[in-house]
Amino acid sequence: MGKQETEMLKGVLEGIVLAILATRAAYGYEITAWLRQQGFSDIAEGTVYALLVRVEQRGLVDVEKVPSEKGPPRKVYTLNAQGEDYLTEFWRTWSFLAERLEQLRPARLVNEEGEK
Length: 116
Description:
This protein is α+β, with helices and mostly antiparallel strands. Helices cover 66% and strands 12% of the residues. A 3-stranded antiparallel β-sheet has the order 1-3-2. Strand 2 (61-66) and strand 3 (74-79) form a beta hairpin. It is globular and about 55 Å long.
């Protein structure tokens, strides 16, 4: 992953993780593994865990400790109502930015990308 891609991902990773939690409860390693399967191969587990601590502290998720066959209990995260509101605002902002960026992209770049 290039530096620009890494920096852009940092800005939206919270929204991505909350979107994952909107579909199902998950623990940190599950989220990291899913992100890697989706092509975010450079995502470090520590990055996801730090993000989960932040969203927990902000009250966007509920946490349940679930026994693990290997080691200590796992913290399973579920998006709560406050997190759903935050995610709705994230998607609204994402749509606004994506539309504006698309308007800024020169037509020749759109055509070149379509031909690839």
